[in-house]
């Protein structure tokens, strides 16, 4: 006695199609760069809040890629890079503003001595 498939409209061979995306799709190329080094450097040297967000995003890349969620892994890698860059830009901008205030304060202090 042969095993009979459950009733339904199946392809010739009599068995239902395999569930989901079978066979599983392999990785399409190499995993995206997670930008973890830039995220850590941004956190330590530049802007702590944006650096922490960049670290969180960069650590998500490997897990998402391993799960086969390639587009989400690439988006997390791009977000990590974006937050690290914005942290560096914010740090430079704050440094420039601080320098302007320090120079203006120094000039104000010099003018009151005369």
From TrEMBL:
Subcellular location: Membrane
InterPro entries: CD225/Dispanin, CD225/Dispanin_fam
Region spans: Disordered: 1-30
UniProt-listed Pfam families: CD225 (PF04505)
GO CC terms, sorted: membrane
TM segment ranges: 36-56, 83-108
Record key words, sorted: Membrane, Transmembrane, Transmembrane helix
Protein name in UniProt: CD225/dispanin family protein
Organism: Mycobacterium aquaticum
Organism lineage string: Bacteria, Bacillati, Actinomycetota, Actinomycetes, Mycobacteriales
């Amino acid at each position: 006695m042969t095993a009979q498939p459950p009733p339904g409209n199946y392809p010739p061979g009599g068995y239902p199609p395999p569930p989901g995306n079978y066979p599983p799709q392999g990785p399409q190329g190499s995993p995206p760069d997670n930008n973890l080094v830039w995220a850590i450097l941004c956190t330590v040297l530049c802007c702590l809040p944006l650096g922490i967000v960049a670290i969180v995003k960069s650590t998500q890349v490997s897990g998402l890629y391993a799960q086969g969620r390639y587009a989400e892994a690439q988006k997390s890698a791009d977000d990590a890079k974006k937050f690290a860059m914005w942290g560096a830009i914010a740090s430079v901008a704050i440094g420039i503003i601080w320098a302007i205030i320090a120079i203006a304060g120094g000039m104000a202090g010099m003018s009151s001595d005369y």
